[in-house]
Amino acid sequence: MSWMLLASASGFFAGVACAVVGVFVITMHLSFLGVCIAHAAFAGALMAVWLGFDPLFGALAFSLGAAAAIGPLADRGEINPDTSTGIVFSLMLGLAFLFLGLTPGSRTEALGLFWGSILTVTPRDAAILAASAAAIVALLLLFFKEIQAVLCHRHIALAVGIPATLVFYGMLFATGLTIAVSLRCIGGLLIYSLILNPAAAAFQLTYRLKRMFILAAAFGVASCWAGLAASYFWDLPAGASIVITSSLLFAAATAFSPKRKVKACPPLNTVS
Amino acid sequence: MTDPIIDMTDAAVSYREHVALEGVSMRVHRGEFVGVIGPNGAGKTTLLTVVNGLGRLARGSVRVLGLDPFNGSGHLVRRRVAYVAQVERLDPRLPISVRETVQVGLCGRVGWFRRPSRADRDRVDEALDWVGAAHLAERPIGHLSGGEYQRVAIARALVQDPDIYLFDEPTASIDPKAQREILALIQRVHAQRKTTVFQVTHDLGALAERCQRLVLMKQGHVWRDGPREALFRPALLRDLYDGELAAHARAWGALCG
């Protein structure tokens, strides 16, 4: 049963970390950025497999590199943020397939990075995930007021003396770190669903940022644990079950969203 | 006379090939109310970004509150300079309330690693009360009308407790009644706080009555700078707007009696 405990713990930490960075990208309307950094991490991990070293280091280098490239490109205003993210995205996808093609042998490890393997995480993977999730939550608590200001009113944040660009890049780096350390567990093709869906579901349900972080983390962990349970009891692929659960949670949140309700007009006789 | 609070010499700002501001020199003293008027594209907003250090200074020297906003002190200057822009289009689903938006004004002064104190939070409520928006405190910021949003923006500027207020077309895109209310608030800010106020507008009818000094801007230059009564004249204003005063009929009518 120790592997199940390890998988549950990994699901918890990946669910929390992915949800927190998901709130960053969803609130700033930069969903595509999460997708782009996920592909960068994937390309980096595949390069590491090709060169024969730990995929984690390749994933870290590429995802942080992509975060460092996209921020300034988008900020300088010379290229539309969508365009710059799209260019980095297509480059990373190209590199991922290049490294996959260059990898000799059976490519089992490389292919495993596509969909991850939460059921076979090692204690080392789980410890790295736990440390990263703890660091991201600690930074969130420490800089909550600055993060809230930059997420919701970036131009105002800059105008009142907050180093908004530094905070923004910090959030991009946190996104890169989370994706890199979750890659082995969740997989390159599935990771951005775990980033976007829980946060998007939480965004539908509340006008409070604090509550949105808590709800997103709960949805992320619930998705991971539901996926694990589906895998354990019905022998379904864990990664796919996690993504499908998170998508269903988003659909349910949208259906019950108070933000979709149109305020009813008062009856004529109550209008003064 | 005391040292100027803003001291600008030969300031120039350019964005790529476009020169937005050219050779602007100006001194502003504590407590002055400066109105900056001119047609669209005259460099009015760029002038404000020189004061708070958010523009790209290509040439010249700028001292604001004794600091150089373009040489590593930008964030220190911005903590003491409040900026109220035009009504912004916000996502109505944005997860932040009116009270939290006003609290953003405190962030620069409170600093890293510290939470706003009880006294700070009381100041937020007082500022909301002062602008007549206390009843909106718990509303999501994206649910406000243009006039309500500008009241909240002024409350955010008040909690910053700044030495300089920059109002950048604060009454643009809001209805006439809300415009009058916002102008009255700006005048109260200047009357009660005795701070320096800049108000930028292209609409002559939206200039606060308390404005004592006028800066007329045209094509990136300061075209005229002087007392309001000397510059608020039909012939000068017709030249400033290249004869196109129709859009300012209200002010024009008042001016001509």
Plain-language structure description:
The complex is a heterodimer of chains A (272) and B (257). Chain A has helices at residues 2-27, 31-51, 55-76, 81-102, 108-115, 123-142, 144-152, 154-159, 164-186, 191-205, 209-234, 238-255. Chain A is mainly alpha-helical and 272 residues long. In chain A, helix 1 (2-27) packs antiparallel against helix 9 (164-186), helix 1 runs antiparallel to helix 11 (209-234) and helix 11 (209-234) packs across helix 12 (238-255). Chain A is globular and about 55 Å long. Chain B has 257 residues and is α/β, with parallel strands linked by helices. Chain B has a single domain (35-53, 76-256), classed as 3-Layer(aba) Sandwich (Rossmann fold), CATH 3.40.50.300. In chain B, strand 8 and strand 9 form a beta hairpin. In chain B, helix 3 runs parallel beside helix 5 (146-159) and helix 5 (146-159) runs parallel beside helix 6. The mean pLDDT of chain B is 86.
